[in-house]
C-alpha cells in the first residue's frame, strides 16, 4: 500500500510538481533579477565610461577589474566554506593565506623547489595548520555562540600577522609567477591588454570554483558538508562525523586561500599585510554573494572587482586609496536591497 | 545465551550538571516494537538521545551484546537510526539529497535502487524529489524523515514523536507504512509517542517514564488495561 | 566558602558598596598626587581614556551581542572633532566633548542603520570596512585633518586658577588633565550603568540573548541595535576627545584597524558583560601597548630590527585566546569569584513573597501528570 498526503487537496501531478518548485523558482527569479539590475547598472556606467575615456581604456579597466575580482572571489570562497561549516566569518582567513604564501615563498627561496611544487607545499601546510586550528581552537566552543569564535579568529589574525612579521619582516618581496610575464605576453582585446598572468590567474580561479562546486554536489564529503551546513544534529544522526567534516572545510578553505595568495602576490608584492586589503574586498564579495553560495562568491568577487576598477577609474575624486570606500558602499547598497546577497537564499529562523 | 538487541542498564543522563534520567533499565529484542510513554519532561526524548550518545550518560548501554560506544557516528554505523523530534529535515537540501544523506554511511551500490523503493512507498516524495525539503508539508517531512532514517539499513529505529503536528489520518497512514516496512525488514523500533492508544496498538511492549525513571513496564496489552496508564495517557 | 554572608540591599550591603566606592574614589583622586613621574601620570590618564572607549564597546558587544571592529574610527572621529574645534576654532577643550558625542552618535547610527536589514555577521564585515576606511578618509581631507602629517593644538588644556594643583611643577599640567578626564569618565560610567539598568538596557540584553523572542515580545530589534551602536560610538568618541585632552596631537595611524582589535582584546580581557570590566580591560590595553612593547623592543630578538609590535601582536593573540578559553567573563569575573570567597551577597527575596507562598499548590489530585 502506498501513501498519499491528504493534508492538502489532490491536484494533477503536473501542477503539483511545478507548484513544488515554487521556492527554488522564486530563488532563481530573484537571483536573476538582482543580477539583471547589477548588469544594467554596470552597462549604464559603461556607456558613460566609453564616451568619457574611449573604448580601449574602458576595456582595460574591465579586464583589470574582473581579473582582480576573480581573486577576491577565491578568498570569498574560502570565507563561504568556513561560514557554512562553522557559522562564523573567519577574520583570520587572509592572515592564514598570507602565512601559506610565505611558506610557499620560503620553499622557492630557500629550498629552490619549482614554483608549482612550492605552491602545493604551501597549500598542504596551510590546510594542515587550519585543520589543527579548527580542532584545537574552534571546536571546543558551542557552535551556536558566535562571539567567542569570532574573537578567536581575530586573535589568530593578530598573532599570525605578528608572527609573519617576526619571521620574515616587513620588507615587501617579489613573488614569482606561474605564467609568462614578459612585456609582450598578452592578448590584445580591442587594444586592451590581457596579460597571461592575469588570464592564467583567472582560469585557475574558475577551475577551483568548478572543482569545488563539483566536489560539493557530487562527492560524499560534499554531501556531508551540505548536511552539516543545513542541520548539525540531523547530520550527526545520519552518521556524519561532524568534526572531521568541519575540519576538512577549514582545510580546503585555507588551501584555496593560500592559492589565492600565491596568485595575488606577484602583483601586490609579498609582505605580512598584503592580504589585508584583499580580505576586505573578499568580505565585500562574500557578502554580495550571500555568504552561502560557492558561485555567489565568485560572482560577488567579479562584481566587487569591476565596481572598484570602474568607480576609482572614472570618478577621479574617488581615485586610488578610496577603493576601500567603494567596496564598503557597494556592500551597503546591495544589502539595502538584497539583505541576503545577490545569490544567497533567504533564511528563516524559528524561535 | 541470546542477548537482546538493545539493553540499557541503570542509565543516567545529564544536561550539564542536571541529571535527567535516574537509572533507566530497558531492553529491546530483535524486530521488537517498544513504545515509551510519559508526560512532558519525563525524559522520553532524553532516553532516545542517550541511546545515540547525544547527551552525557552514565551506566551501561549494550547494543548487540557489546557496549554501544561513545560516538554517534559509530553508533549509526552499527545499525541505530533515529528520527529526531521535529523531524530534523535538512531544509536546504533537495528531497532526493535528503534521502541520499540517509544512506551516507553506506558504500554499497544498492543506494540507487533503495531510493526507488522509498519513492514507491512514499509517492509524494517522488513527485517532489528535486524540491528543497524545507518546502514540504509536515506529513511529507515525516515521510522523508522515516525514509532517511531507514536508508542506512538500521537494525534499530528510534522514533521521537512521529505524530507531532500531523493530522490524525496522516498519522494513521504513516504508522501503517512504518509497521509494514519494519516488519518486512525486521527492524526493531523504540517509539516515543503522545498518541498512546495508537502507539500501544502497534507495539509489543511499553515503558512508562515518570520524572526520569521507569514507573511501569509490561506488555502493550497489559499497559492498555492498566488503570493508571489509561487515566493518565489514554484519557478515558 | 565565603567568610561573611550579607543579604542584598541590607544595611551591611549598602555600607559595603558605599565604602568600596568611596575608597575607590579616594584612591583615584590621590593617585596622581603621590606619583612623582610625569610619564606614569600620563599612562594612568591613558588608562582612564581608553576605559571609556572599552566601556562603549562593551555596551555593544557584551550587552547587545553585536560585534564591531570599527570602533577605532569612532575614537578617531571624536579625537579629530576635538582637535579641529580647538586648533582651528579656539574652542575650550571640554566644550568639544558634546560635539564629539553628537558627531559620533550620528556616525554610529549611520553605520548601524544597515542593521535594519543586515543580520548577524554582515554587520561585522561592514564595521571592518569602516575601520579600514577611516585613515583613508582622514588623508582625503588634509585641509581639515592635516592629512598624513597629523594635527596639533598649540595650547594644552589648562585648569582654572582656583584649582588646587600647582600648574608650575612638572607634574602639574598632566595632573590637571587627569582630573578633568577622570570627571568625564566617571560621568560616562554612570551613564553606562544607568543605560544597562534601564528599559533599553533590558531590551539590549533580550536582543543579545534571543533576538527572535525579543522581536516576538515587541522589542524593536533593529532600533535597539542602532541605539546600541550609536551610543557605543558616542562613548568611543568621548574617549577620542579625552585622548586629545591628554595629548593634543592626532594622526591617522593612531586610529587604525589594530586599535579596534586591541580594544576588543581589552574588552574580552576585562570582562565584556560588565561595566566595571572596562577598567581592568583598559589596564591590559595600555600595559600591552606601552610596557610590553618597550620590553619586547629591549629583547632585541631580531638583531636590530624593531620587534616590539610583533611580540605584542603574538602576546595579544595568545592572551585573547587564553581569556576566551579560561576566563570568558574576563578579569572582572575572576575578581568577583575572589570576592565571593570573602563576602557572599545573597539576593533578597521579592517583597511580600510569603503572601504568594502557597499559590502554586492547587493541583494535588493528578498523580501521574507532572509538569516540569
- The CATH architecture classification of chain A is Orthogonal Bundle
Distance between the termini of chain B: 42 Å
Q: Structural class of the helix and strand makeup of chain B?
A: alpha/beta
Q: Summarize the biggest pleated sheet of chain B.
A: 6 strands, mixed
What's the Cα radius of gyration of chain B?
17 Å
Strand percentage of chain A: under 5%
Principal-axis shape of chain B: globular
GO molecular function (chain C): branched-chain amino acid transmembrane transporter activity
Subcellular location (chain C): Cell membrane
GO cellular component, one term (chain C): plasma membrane
Keywords (chain C): Cell membrane, Membrane, Transmembrane, Transmembrane helix
Description:
- Chain A has 13 helices and two strands, in the order H-H-H-H-H-H-E-E-H-H-H-H-H-H-H.
- Chain A has 351 residues and is an all-alpha fold.
- The model of chain A is unreliable at 4-20 (pLDDT under 50).
- By secondary structure, chain B is an alpha/beta fold.
- Chain B is globular, with a radius of gyration of 17 Å.
- In chain B, helix 7 (168-185) links the parallel strand 7 and strand 8 (188-192).
- In chain B, helix 3 (95-102) packs parallel to helix 6 (138-151) and helix 6 packs parallel to helix 7 (168-185).
- Chain C is mainly α and 372 residues long.
- Chain C contains 14 helices and four strands.
- Chain C has helices at 11-34, 38-64, 71-89, 96-112, 121-140, 142-145, 172-197, 199-209, 211-216, 221-246, 257-270, 278-299, 308-326, 330-342, and strands at residues 4-7, 151-152, 249-250, 343-346.
- In chain C, helix 11 (257-270) packs parallel to helix 13 (308-326).
- The chains are: A mainly alpha (351), B alpha/beta (236), C mainly alpha (372).
